[in-house]
Amino acid sequence: MDAEYQDKEKDFLKQGLAAAWPICMGYMPIGMALGVLAQKAGLSVFEMALMSVIVFAGSAQFICVSMLVSGAASIPIIITTFVVNLRHVLLSSSLAKHLDSMSLKGLALYAYGVTDESFGVNYTRFIEGGWTPKKALVVNHASNLCWILCTIAGAWFGELIPQGAFGIDYALIAMFIGLLIFQIRGLIYVASAVIAGLAASVMHLYTEGNMYVIVGAMTGATVCLALRRTAFFKKFEKAREEKT
Amino acid sequence: MTTFQLFLIFLGMGLVTYLPRFIPLALFAKRDVPAWFSEWLSFIPPALLAALLAPDLIVAKTAQGAHFDFLNPKLFVAFPVFFIAAKTKSLGGTVISGMALYWLAQKLIESGYLG
């Protein structure tokens, strides 16, 4: 390990937290809302905490609470959770090559905090460079801690906070917009996003559940891979390269 | 339902949440994947973020049914937020300005200046 690297590593905690705070902003309204719903569904503050610590998957937790209210049995809840969280396979697969320096134990610790949000933040930083698995791990677990605290706060006194205060409902949407913009490193990435967005929206119109996220994303990526393999696109990219 | 029963459900949920996150990491971190697969994966991040985002902005789901909705404050606010994100390259700044703009848009709607 050279000196410069060590210097960079020293404040990994600070840098990780600095990268994580927009995620925490986004989690606040959603975590609180979940806490309020869970409390209305009859879960105690302790049970809410238990759930967030063991599961850490926002949408699946919402679904679990609503299924509990409608009296669903445990196996359907678990199967639904599995389907809802299947998209994490895509996130982890994309992240894996940036975490090749981690031990299996490190990866096991990392996997716990892979969410849409932490993935977006960490993937962007890895691509930009200067990001390390250690900092990424701080992002994952800081977001996780924040999520747990927000859901507990919601279960405790969430009803006191007015709905939609300070535009906080828009925090996660704005974050996804930012993260999406940071991924655009060429025309083909725009194509990937546009195709995926349209495919997901159309599917969302006609289907229940959230499989539209996986199907939309896979559609965008597959079309772009095919597009890039076509002679037309190769010619187009070559022409662009010659221009610049 | 008792706390212990809930605990068992959460444990099951935790397991089926954790494994799809862990297995690809363990499989692909140290192994070379085929070139086409890693190229395909490189398109996944923008595609996935767009797939998460777009339905929120352009699809309205109500009890009566689902339809495209291109005239809603979430979508209108998205345009300046896209622009701010591209210009500032700051995630925190984007989140804060998005919240402020959305808050403003809702105030304007409430006061009757818009729609």
TrEMBL record, chain A:
This is AzlC family protein. It is found in: Cell membrane. The keyword Transmembrane applies. Belongs to the AzlC family. The chain crosses the membrane at residues 20-38, 50-69, 75-96, 137-158, 164-182, 187-206, 212-231. Keywords: Cell membrane, Membrane, Transmembrane, Transmembrane helix, Transport. It comes from Desulfatibacillum aliphaticivorans. GO terms for cellular component: plasma membrane. Pfam families: AzlC.
